[in-house]
Amino acid sequence: MVPGLPLKNTQASTGDTFEAAVLAGLSRRPRAIPAKFLYDAQGSALFDAICELPEYYLTRTEITILRDRAPEIAALAGPGRQLIEFGSGSSVKTRLLLDSLEAVAAYVPIDISGEHLEATSRRLRADYPALAIVPVCADYTDLPMLPWLPGSSGAAKLGFFPGSTIGNLDPDEALAFLRNARRLLGPGGALVLGADLKKDPGMLHAAYNDSAGVTAAFSLNLLARMNRELGASFDLEGFAHEAFYNPAAGRIEIYIRSLRPQSVRIAGQRFFFDAGERVHTEYSYKYDLADMDALAVPAGFVRTQTWTDPGRLFSVNYFVAT
Ligand code: AVJ
Protein backbone atom coordinates (compact mmCIF):
# COMPACT_ATOMS: atom_id res chain seq x y z
CA MET A 1 0.00 0.00 0.00
CA VAL A 2 1.26 3.43 -0.91
CA PRO A 3 1.29 6.03 1.86
CA GLY A 4 -0.53 9.21 0.91
CA LEU A 5 -2.95 7.52 -1.45
CA PRO A 6 -6.45 6.75 -0.24
CA LEU A 7 -6.80 2.98 -0.05
CA LYS A 8 -9.74 1.59 -1.90
CA ASN A 9 -11.91 -0.87 -0.05
CA THR A 10 -15.25 0.29 -1.29
CA GLN A 11 -18.74 -1.06 -0.77
CA ALA A 12 -18.79 -2.33 -4.33
CA SER A 13 -15.72 -4.49 -3.75
CA THR A 14 -17.41 -6.24 -0.81
CA GLY A 15 -20.71 -6.70 -2.71
CA ASP A 16 -22.34 -4.60 0.01
CA THR A 17 -24.12 -2.09 -2.23
CA PHE A 18 -27.12 0.01 -1.19
CA GLU A 19 -29.38 -1.87 -3.61
CA ALA A 20 -28.30 -5.31 -2.37
CA ALA A 21 -28.69 -4.24 1.27
CA VAL A 22 -32.15 -2.78 0.66
CA LEU A 23 -33.46 -5.79 -1.26
CA ALA A 24 -32.09 -8.21 1.34
CA GLY A 25 -33.20 -6.07 4.29
CA LEU A 26 -36.79 -5.72 3.08
CA SER A 27 -37.05 -9.41 2.17
CA ARG A 28 -36.20 -10.64 5.67
CA ARG A 29 -38.35 -10.51 8.82
CA PRO A 30 -38.09 -8.39 10.84
CA ARG A 31 -37.25 -5.91 8.12
CA ALA A 32 -34.05 -3.95 8.70
CA ILE A 33 -31.62 -1.78 6.71
CA PRO A 34 -28.12 -1.14 8.12
CA ALA A 35 -27.69 2.30 9.71
CA LYS A 36 -24.64 3.18 7.61
CA PHE A 37 -26.93 3.74 4.60
CA LEU A 38 -28.51 6.74 6.36
CA TYR A 39 -25.42 8.78 5.50
CA ASP A 40 -25.65 9.83 1.86
CA ALA A 41 -24.94 13.54 1.18
CA GLN A 42 -28.44 14.59 2.32
CA GLY A 43 -28.39 12.24 5.32
CA SER A 44 -24.98 13.57 6.37
CA ALA A 45 -26.27 17.16 6.12
CA LEU A 46 -29.34 16.21 8.19
CA PHE A 47 -27.12 14.51 10.78
CA ASP A 48 -25.05 17.71 11.02
CA ALA A 49 -28.34 19.55 11.70
CA ILE A 50 -29.23 16.98 14.41
CA CYS A 51 -25.94 17.81 16.15
CA GLU A 52 -27.10 21.44 16.50
CA LEU A 53 -30.53 20.59 18.00
CA PRO A 54 -31.24 21.72 21.57
CA GLU A 55 -32.45 18.19 22.49
CA TYR A 56 -29.40 16.46 20.99
CA TYR A 57 -26.90 17.01 23.80
CA LEU A 58 -24.37 14.39 22.61
CA THR A 59 -22.19 16.36 20.19
CA ARG A 60 -21.83 19.58 22.14
CA THR A 61 -21.24 17.68 25.40
CA GLU A 62 -18.50 15.52 23.89
CA ILE A 63 -16.82 18.55 22.29
CA THR A 64 -16.79 20.33 25.65
CA ILE A 65 -15.23 17.30 27.37
CA LEU A 66 -12.60 16.93 24.63
CA ARG A 67 -11.79 20.66 24.69
CA ASP A 68 -11.38 20.64 28.49
CA ARG A 69 -9.47 17.36 28.68
CA ALA A 70 -7.33 17.32 25.54
CA PRO A 71 -4.19 18.26 27.52
CA GLU A 72 -4.78 15.34 29.91
CA ILE A 73 -5.42 12.97 27.01
CA ALA A 74 -2.22 14.18 25.34
CA ALA A 75 -0.27 13.65 28.55
CA LEU A 76 -1.54 10.06 28.81
CA ALA A 77 -0.73 9.36 25.15
CA GLY A 78 2.74 10.92 25.24
CA PRO A 79 4.60 12.29 22.20
CA GLY A 80 5.17 10.77 18.77
CA ARG A 81 1.99 8.74 18.26
CA GLN A 82 0.29 7.88 15.00
CA LEU A 83 -3.31 9.08 15.40
CA ILE A 84 -5.80 6.66 13.78
CA GLU A 85 -9.42 7.82 13.48
CA PHE A 86 -12.21 5.31 12.83
CA GLY A 87 -14.94 7.07 10.81
CA SER A 88 -13.35 10.50 10.56
CA GLY A 89 -16.10 12.46 8.77
CA SER A 90 -15.16 16.14 8.91
CA SER A 91 -12.47 15.60 11.62
CA VAL A 92 -13.84 18.50 13.71
CA LYS A 93 -13.21 16.75 17.05
CA THR A 94 -9.80 15.53 15.88
CA ARG A 95 -8.52 19.09 15.79
CA LEU A 96 -9.03 19.30 19.55
CA LEU A 97 -6.64 16.35 19.97
CA LEU A 98 -4.20 17.54 17.28
CA ASP A 99 -3.91 20.88 19.06
CA SER A 100 -2.75 19.17 22.28
CA LEU A 101 -0.91 16.02 21.15
CA GLU A 102 2.86 16.40 20.91
CA ALA A 103 4.87 15.55 17.79
CA VAL A 104 2.13 13.51 16.07
CA ALA A 105 3.92 11.05 13.75
CA ALA A 106 0.99 10.84 11.33
CA TYR A 107 -2.78 11.27 11.20
CA VAL A 108 -4.64 8.38 9.51
CA PRO A 109 -8.33 9.25 9.02
CA ILE A 110 -10.41 6.23 7.95
CA ASP A 111 -13.76 6.89 6.31
CA ILE A 112 -16.11 5.18 3.87
CA SER A 113 -16.75 8.46 2.04
CA GLY A 114 -13.91 9.30 -0.34
CA GLU A 115 -15.26 12.80 -0.96
CA HIS A 116 -15.41 13.57 2.76
CA LEU A 117 -11.85 12.26 3.18
CA GLU A 118 -10.45 14.36 0.37
CA ALA A 119 -12.14 17.60 1.41
CA THR A 120 -11.24 17.10 5.06
CA SER A 121 -7.62 16.15 4.34
CA ARG A 122 -7.22 19.22 2.15
CA ARG A 123 -8.48 21.52 4.90
CA LEU A 124 -6.36 19.82 7.57
CA ARG A 125 -3.22 20.04 5.41
CA ALA A 126 -3.77 23.79 5.13
CA ASP A 127 -4.14 24.17 8.90
CA TYR A 128 -1.46 21.61 9.97
CA PRO A 129 1.22 21.92 7.26
CA ALA A 130 3.81 19.92 9.25
CA LEU A 131 1.47 16.97 9.85
CA ALA A 132 1.68 13.79 7.73
CA ILE A 133 -1.93 12.97 6.78
CA VAL A 134 -2.59 9.53 5.28
CA PRO A 135 -6.29 9.10 4.46
CA VAL A 136 -7.69 5.59 4.12
CA CYS A 137 -10.97 5.11 2.24
CA ALA A 138 -12.49 2.03 3.86
CA ASP A 139 -15.18 0.63 6.10
CA TYR A 140 -13.52 0.94 9.50
CA THR A 141 -15.50 -2.01 10.90
CA ASP A 142 -13.59 -4.58 8.84
CA LEU A 143 -10.33 -2.90 7.89
CA PRO A 144 -7.69 -5.63 7.47
CA MET A 145 -4.61 -3.44 7.97
CA LEU A 146 -3.31 0.08 8.36
CA PRO A 147 -0.96 1.67 5.82
CA TRP A 148 2.71 1.04 6.56
CA LEU A 149 4.38 4.40 7.06
CA PRO A 150 8.15 4.19 6.52
CA GLY A 151 8.70 7.49 8.34
CA SER A 152 7.05 6.37 11.57
CA SER A 153 6.91 2.59 11.48
CA GLY A 154 7.92 2.28 15.13
CA ALA A 155 5.44 4.87 16.45
CA ALA A 156 2.86 3.73 18.99
CA LYS A 157 -0.70 4.24 17.84
CA LEU A 158 -3.56 6.20 19.37
CA GLY A 159 -7.03 5.28 18.08
CA PHE A 160 -9.89 7.79 18.12
CA PHE A 161 -13.53 6.70 17.90
CA PRO A 162 -15.69 9.64 19.01
CA GLY A 163 -19.36 10.53 18.64
CA SER A 164 -20.84 7.47 20.33
CA THR A 165 -20.68 5.85 16.92
CA ILE A 166 -20.08 2.64 18.86
CA GLY A 167 -23.74 2.98 19.91
CA ASN A 168 -24.86 2.05 16.39
CA LEU A 169 -23.17 -1.35 16.80
CA ASP A 170 -24.92 -4.18 18.63
CA PRO A 171 -22.84 -5.82 21.40
CA ASP A 172 -21.40 -8.51 19.09
CA GLU A 173 -20.46 -5.94 16.45
CA ALA A 174 -19.03 -3.60 19.08
CA LEU A 175 -16.82 -6.38 20.45
CA ALA A 176 -15.71 -7.33 16.92
CA PHE A 177 -14.90 -3.68 16.19
CA LEU A 178 -12.86 -3.29 19.39
CA ARG A 179 -10.98 -6.55 18.79
CA ASN A 180 -10.06 -5.39 15.31
CA ALA A 181 -9.10 -1.94 16.60
CA ARG A 182 -6.92 -3.60 19.24
CA ARG A 183 -5.20 -5.68 16.55
CA LEU A 184 -4.67 -2.64 14.28
CA LEU A 185 -3.38 -0.44 17.12
CA GLY A 186 -0.91 -3.11 18.20
CA PRO A 187 1.22 -3.37 21.34
CA GLY A 188 1.39 -0.06 23.19
CA GLY A 189 -1.79 1.03 21.44
CA ALA A 190 -4.44 3.15 23.13
CA LEU A 191 -7.94 4.22 22.15
CA VAL A 192 -9.96 7.34 22.94
CA LEU A 193 -13.61 6.28 22.82
CA GLY A 194 -16.59 8.62 23.10
CA ALA A 195 -19.79 6.94 24.31
CA ASP A 196 -23.19 8.23 25.35
CA LEU A 197 -24.07 7.34 28.95
CA LYS A 198 -27.27 5.74 30.27
CA LYS A 199 -29.55 8.39 31.73
CA ASP A 200 -33.13 9.53 32.27
CA PRO A 201 -35.20 7.86 29.50
CA GLY A 202 -37.17 11.08 29.00
CA MET A 203 -34.02 12.93 28.03
CA LEU A 204 -32.99 10.11 25.70
CA HIS A 205 -36.43 10.06 24.13
CA ALA A 206 -36.31 13.79 23.43
CA ALA A 207 -32.86 13.52 21.80
CA TYR A 208 -34.26 11.13 19.16
CA ASN A 209 -37.71 12.76 18.82
CA ASP A 210 -36.81 16.43 18.44
CA SER A 211 -39.58 18.99 18.23
CA ALA A 212 -38.30 20.42 14.91
CA GLY A 213 -38.62 17.02 13.23
CA VAL A 214 -35.02 16.89 12.01
CA THR A 215 -34.46 13.35 13.30
CA ALA A 216 -37.64 12.23 11.55
CA ALA A 217 -36.39 13.82 8.32
CA PHE A 218 -33.01 12.05 8.81
CA SER A 219 -34.74 8.66 9.16
CA LEU A 220 -37.19 9.16 6.30
CA ASN A 221 -34.34 10.33 4.05
CA LEU A 222 -33.55 6.63 3.77
CA LEU A 223 -36.81 6.23 1.79
CA ALA A 224 -36.02 9.36 -0.23
CA ARG A 225 -32.58 7.91 -0.97
CA MET A 226 -34.20 4.71 -2.27
CA ASN A 227 -36.41 6.86 -4.51
CA ARG A 228 -33.37 8.81 -5.78
CA GLU A 229 -30.91 5.96 -6.23
CA LEU A 230 -33.02 2.84 -6.77
CA GLY A 231 -35.99 4.37 -8.58
CA ALA A 232 -38.24 3.35 -5.67
CA SER A 233 -41.80 4.65 -5.35
CA PHE A 234 -42.03 5.46 -1.62
CA ASP A 235 -44.66 8.03 -0.64
CA LEU A 236 -42.87 9.71 2.29
CA GLU A 237 -46.24 10.83 3.68
CA GLY A 238 -47.16 7.18 4.14
CA PHE A 239 -44.40 6.47 6.68
CA ALA A 240 -43.37 7.82 10.07
CA HIS A 241 -40.24 7.96 12.21
CA GLU A 242 -40.42 5.97 15.45
CA ALA A 243 -37.78 6.09 18.19
CA PHE A 244 -37.99 4.93 21.82
CA TYR A 245 -35.71 3.81 24.63
CA ASN A 246 -35.70 0.09 25.41
CA PRO A 247 -34.43 0.00 29.01
CA ALA A 248 -33.92 -3.78 29.14
CA ALA A 249 -31.60 -3.65 26.12
CA GLY A 250 -30.10 -0.26 27.07
CA ARG A 251 -30.66 1.21 23.64
CA ILE A 252 -32.70 3.63 21.58
CA GLU A 253 -34.46 1.71 18.81
CA ILE A 254 -35.34 3.51 15.58
CA TYR A 255 -37.80 2.33 12.96
CA ILE A 256 -39.65 3.61 9.92
CA ARG A 257 -43.33 2.71 10.33
CA SER A 258 -45.83 2.26 7.52
CA LEU A 259 -48.96 4.29 8.30
CA ARG A 260 -51.24 2.24 6.03
CA PRO A 261 -51.21 -0.90 3.90
CA GLN A 262 -49.20 -0.06 0.81
CA SER A 263 -47.05 -1.48 -1.92
CA VAL A 264 -43.80 -0.01 -3.15
CA ARG A 265 -41.69 -0.70 -6.24
CA ILE A 266 -37.93 -0.90 -5.65
CA ALA A 267 -35.40 -1.83 -8.34
CA GLY A 268 -38.02 -3.73 -10.32
CA GLN A 269 -39.40 -5.64 -7.32
CA ARG A 270 -42.63 -5.05 -5.38
CA PHE A 271 -42.77 -4.90 -1.57
CA PHE A 272 -45.94 -4.88 0.55
CA PHE A 273 -46.16 -3.07 3.87
CA ASP A 274 -48.96 -3.73 6.37
CA ALA A 275 -50.40 -0.84 8.36
CA GLY A 276 -48.09 -0.44 11.36
CA GLU A 277 -45.34 -2.60 9.88
CA ARG A 278 -41.85 -1.38 10.74
CA VAL A 279 -38.43 -1.32 9.09
CA HIS A 280 -35.62 -1.20 11.64
CA THR A 281 -32.98 1.41 10.77
CA GLU A 282 -30.85 2.07 13.86
CA TYR A 283 -29.91 1.13 17.38
CA SER A 284 -28.21 3.66 19.59
CA TYR A 285 -26.78 1.77 22.56
CA LYS A 286 -26.17 3.65 25.78
CA TYR A 287 -23.29 2.63 28.02
CA ASP A 288 -22.51 2.86 31.69
CA LEU A 289 -18.94 2.31 32.84
CA ALA A 290 -19.56 -1.35 33.68
CA ASP A 291 -20.95 -1.93 30.16
CA MET A 292 -17.82 -0.33 28.75
CA ASP A 293 -15.50 -2.55 30.80
CA ALA A 294 -17.49 -5.64 29.80
CA LEU A 295 -16.63 -4.76 26.20
CA ALA A 296 -13.06 -3.50 26.70
CA VAL A 297 -11.65 -6.45 28.60
CA PRO A 298 -12.52 -9.28 26.18
CA ALA A 299 -11.28 -7.05 23.33
CA GLY A 300 -7.84 -6.74 24.96
CA PHE A 301 -8.16 -3.26 26.45
CA VAL A 302 -8.35 -1.86 29.95
CA ARG A 303 -10.18 1.42 30.61
CA THR A 304 -7.71 3.55 32.56
CA GLN A 305 -9.51 6.91 32.55
CA THR A 306 -12.99 8.32 31.96
CA TRP A 307 -13.96 11.97 31.66
CA THR A 308 -17.58 13.13 31.81
CA ASP A 309 -19.50 16.40 31.95
CA PRO A 310 -20.99 17.62 35.27
CA GLY A 311 -24.42 16.23 34.28
CA ARG A 312 -22.86 12.81 33.48
CA LEU A 313 -24.51 12.79 30.06
CA PHE A 314 -21.54 11.64 27.96
CA SER A 315 -18.22 9.88 28.49
CA VAL A 316 -14.80 10.09 26.89
CA ASN A 317 -12.77 7.02 27.79
CA TYR A 318 -9.10 6.13 27.55
CA PHE A 319 -8.45 2.45 26.77
CA VAL A 320 -4.98 0.93 26.90
CA ALA A 321 -4.00 -2.31 25.11
CA THR A 322 -3.37 -5.17 27.56
C1 AVJ B 1 -24.08 8.95 15.01
C2 AVJ B 1 -24.79 6.88 15.91
C3 AVJ B 1 -24.00 8.60 17.37
O1 AVJ B 1 -26.99 7.29 17.77
O2 AVJ B 1 -27.00 9.33 18.43
C4 AVJ B 1 -28.77 10.51 15.89
C5 AVJ B 1 -27.07 8.70 15.12
N1 AVJ B 1 -29.56 8.85 14.79
N2 AVJ B 1 -30.10 10.66 15.77
C6 AVJ B 1 -26.77 8.48 17.59
C7 AVJ B 1 -28.42 9.34 15.28
C8 AVJ B 1 -30.57 9.66 15.09
C9 AVJ B 1 -26.14 8.93 16.27
N3 AVJ B 1 -24.78 8.33 16.12
Automatic annotation (TrEMBL):
Keyword flag Zinc-finger:
no
- Listed Pfam families: Methyltransf_33
Q: Where is the Histidine-specific methyltransferase SAM-dependent domain?
A: 19-318
SUPFAM superfamilies with a match to the protein in the record = S-adenosyl-L-methionine-dependent methyltransferases
* GO BP, one annotated term: methylation
Keyword line: Methyltransferase, Transferase
Enzyme Commission (EC) number: 2.1.1.44
Task: Extract the InterPro entries matched here.
Answer: EgtD (IPR035094), EgtD_Methyltrsf_superfamily (IPR051128), MeTrfase_dom (IPR019257), MeTrfase_EgtD-like (IPR017804), SAM-dependent_MTases_sf (IPR029063)
Which superkingdom, per the lineage? Bacteria
| Matches recorded under NCBIfam families | egtD_ergothio (TIGR03438)
What is this protein's record name? L-histidine N(Alpha)-methyltransferase
Which source organism? Vineibacter terrae
